[in-house]
Amino acid sequence: MSNLPEGEKQHPEAGTGLCFGIIAYLVWGFFPVYFKAIASVPPLQVVSHRIVWSVLFLCLLITLRRSWSDIRVVMADRKSLLILIATALLIATNWLVFIIAVEHGEVLQSSLGYFITPFVSVLLGFLFLKERLRRLQLAGLFCAAAGVIILTLRNGSFPWTALILALTFGSYGLLRKVVAADSLSGLFVETLLLAPLAFGYLLFVGIKGVGAFPAAGMRLDLLLAAAGFVTAIPLLLFSAAARRLRLATIGFLQYLTPTLHFLLAVLLYCEPFNSTHLAGFLLIWTGLVAYSWDAYRAVTGARRYQME
To answer: Which residues contact 212 (CB under 8 A, 6 or more apart)?
Structure first.
């Protein structure tokens, strides 16, 4: 039997969780491209479309997997249902703030928010899941924190958008890790809880004649309909990863998404980039390398320990 402390134990499917997490964060990293393409649609309508089309897409997946019994189990569990109500509100808020940031040309601001998220994840893991950091991990954390501070100071004002994005998604990750529901069931219940409000709002704007769908043309209609797929797939992968990885590890994988946002903002959307941005960016990635190297050593050490 392993004598590793509780916060150091590795999930038996940690490798699979790592792959799921990397793919999810890479997909999220290219989200600004998608939301720039539908920037003419008001943010609240975009969020509503994400919810409605996600429910339809997830219904199809659940039917194909014949797992409606799992949904009934989750819906009957009062504690799980309460947690999923909270996660639904958190993720909807995160979506709305992110879309507003992208549509207002603040991709760097959203990037900063997701750079801060890992620190929220590490803090929540320490407070609620008894996760501990080793010395090299702490060094990586402080190094990355220095980079975030530099980027925050460079912004010139308090980064409310970034802070809301970090708090909502960090808290979402914690709750999705502890809820007694698999990734597909949990995500379906989350979106199902939000669906009546989202569908009602889309009906309202449609009746008023200001709805984007289906009046905006086939290209935009198809992009809005695809919102269910592009929303559900990375969230399913993330939820599966969250149940297999330490919250601190999930937090540091998070750097993949804001790094891609950062590169898109500078290289594709020509948002300002200077030496201060470069210094912050390098410090964050130095911290990520330090943490990743230590995590790799811990995994290999745990495997050797189990073999012995």
So the answer is: 40, 41, 42, 45, 220, 224
Cβ atoms within 10 Å of 203's Cβ, excluding its own: 12
Q: Which residues of 258-277 are buried (b: 16+ CB within 10 A; e: fewer)?
A: bbbbbebbbeeeebeeeeeb
Is the pLDDT confidence value at 3 over 70? Answer: no
pLDDT (average), residues 83-99: 92
What's the distance, Cα to Cα, between the start and end of the chain in Å? 11
Tell me the pLDDT of the chain averaged across its residues.
81
CA distance 175 to 125: 11
pLDDT digits (tens, 9 = 90+) for 219-245: 888 888 888 888 888 878 887 787 777
Residue 153: exposure state from Cβ atoms within 10 A (0-12, 13-18, ≥19): exposed
What backbone phi and psi angles, to 5 degrees, belong to 30?
Answer: -100, 10
Q: For residue 111, which of 31, 204, 230 has the smallest C-alpha distance?
A: 31
What count of other Cβ atoms lies within 10 Å of the Cβ of residue 120?
23
pLDDT band at 38 (very low <50, low <70, confident <90, very high): confident
Enter the pTM of the model. Answer: 0.77
Burial class (CB in 10 A: 0-12, 13-18, 19+), 8: middle
